[in-house]
Amino acid sequence: MNKMNSFLRKTRYFVVAFAENSWRGAAAGAVVAMIFVLFILGSYFKTGVSPILDVFLILLIMGLLIFGTAALAKPLFKIVKSFNPSFVAAFIATYVVAGYLPYRFFSRPFILFGLVCGAIVGYSVSRGLRKRSSRLLLLFVVVMNGLLFYFLSTDGFESDIVPNDRSLKATIPQAFDDPSKAGKENVKELFYGSGDDKNRPEYGSLISIKTESVDATPFFDQSSGFANYARKAYWGFNSKNYPINARVWYPDGKGPFPLVLIVHGNHSMIDYSDPGYEYLGRLMASRGYIVASVDENFLNGGWMGDYEQKEMFTRAWLLLKHLENWRKWNETKNNPFYERVDMNNIALIGHSRGGAAVVTAAAINQLDRYHLDAQQKFDFNFSIKGIVQIAPNDPYTPQKEVAIIPENINYLILQGGHDEDMYWFLGNRVYNRVIFKDGNYHFKTALYIYRANHGQFNTSWGRKDNGIPASWFLNTKPIMSGEEQREIAKVYISAFLESTLKGNTDYIPLFKDFRQAAGILPKDFYISQFEDTNFTYIADFQEDFDVTTTSLQGGRIEGENLKAWREDALPLRDDWGTSQQNSGVCLGWEKNDSVATALPQYVIHIPDSTVKKDRHNNLFFFICNNKDEEANSIDFSMELTAKNGSVTKSFGSFRQLPPPLKTKLTKTNRIYSMAKNKPVERVLQYVEIPFSEFTKADSTFEPSEINQIRFVFDKTDSGEILLDKIGIN
Questions:
Q1: pTM for the full predicted model
Q2: Which residue from 462, 466, 510 is spatially nearest to 483, judged by alpha carbons?
Q3: Rounded to 5 degrees, what angle do the CA atoms 183, 187, 191 make?
Q4: 174-532 — its CATH code?
Q5: E-only strand ranges, 75-204
Q6: pLDDT, tens digit (0-9, with 9 covering 90-100), for 487-529
């Protein structure tokens, strides 16, 4: 003990002596190192005059900043020296430790707040509680803590943008049955899985079909390391023997029935996600589908960490291993699904990371070998006819920066405007990448739901799209109810499956115009997109960056008296400046009373014989307001010119665009921010206008002879729009 005390005294003496005698050298060392760094920075700071001037300027600027900061900081040390050493130690220790804790945005300010409140209380008690000033200080602490508690516990505040009946006003009466209504089939439920799940009886003693585990280590080796040992301790398995588990809802009938797999995304691994799609499973089973909600909770995050997208290929590969079992069961006598599965009609539905997984699975499905290790052979080749993404991310690329391009498959995406996890419409990039080139009919469609969030598409996830403490800062007040949000999912997913797996084309008008379901959908602002193999694009702005060219050979574009005219990638509202991987044109106009000029206009000249009477009945384009602040409703004139004359109609007579759909996703961006400087996502609305609307105005007008489309901005004094994918169908 004496030796230990002696050692501690000597150590303390050395530290104090070192601190007292080393400060000059430390200061000089810091300054010399900083000068060297500034020389390096000066080599990148180029005025174009002289390298010597470059270095001198950076030294001068940074020197002023350094010495100015030092001059301001020096008096602070005198103040700090007057504090009690225990207070200084407590402040430094808690603040430094808080920097290593998760959620530093919360832990550091909260600990600092507690330290200040504690200091005030300690000061008040030391002065005596009989003094009025002490009691006032204590009251101040109580009030501040009450306000903090109220701020953290409240749901936030309503949006200023309130949906109205006009936003859902339909131009055409609904021409289809409600796809969200239950069908005539009786629904049964069963579980299949490993049979030895240590945490979940539905995949243990309650299974109806036992499955063999699969070895994912060639793609995702998680058999070593502390975090993976901790996971194995919880689950009882690792990547060497991942289970094939799912809960199934199916019709009590002979079949065969189309097969639908649903897969969840990333969530707490111990808050199981696969039960959260029962509402979809039971609905679709009643309408004649076999639906399996796949368990991939073991790939989700936990206290030991998150795989951070590295598991994306495995999430997708596991879906295909599930389909292998379904193929086997459909061919095995005495299996409950023997000859009851229509393996020629399969769809995949994925939520969040599961959304990325289903797109990846559709791509892997076409491969013979694993692209990173060709010794791994595949034999999938399932008849996957459609994929549905719900609020997906888009991180995974098989090869660095080479994105997956889904081909020849029907596609639907649902995205919420108040999603506080995937708060930017990242899945819109997947929509833009989907292509059709096999000559068969395919379509792709998207729906943006203003007041929907991320989690309520799954009944297990809820209104809070982040865990504590981040969830305390989310503004959840404007979000629609979970029942409303899931009703939208039921309408669109059911309609999509009916169109894709059963060939029911009655629902195609719904995908083109959400107002077709005005009597079904909850009141909200929606934006819909649609494209199919019947489209002919006149100008999709993907061919080059020449603003005068069209996608069609021989076409050309002109602009007159426009305040803005530029072609560029369409932005996302993320905090990193990424794009929708799609280009469009920005057109702006502003009335100038002082100068008499022609009206601002944008003119597209179409090559002859482009419009065919037997296949082209409509003009279409994609459009949105490019302003963050609410302005006058976007309106302008559209003039179609043919050989025998022209006809003009107002855009407002066909469609009303929503106001800029601003969202404030957090209670304050000063502490926890999302899309801090981008409150509005630029989502383009698909607009389809029948040529018959123009012939009504002039019966002699011949649409097949159209050679010019003119957008004339004459209805409002100013405005700015994004325009894309102009064409005919």
A1: 0.89
A2: 462
A3: 140
A4: 3.40.50.1820
A5: 187-193
A6: 999 999 999 999 999 999 999 999 999 999 988 999 999 999 9
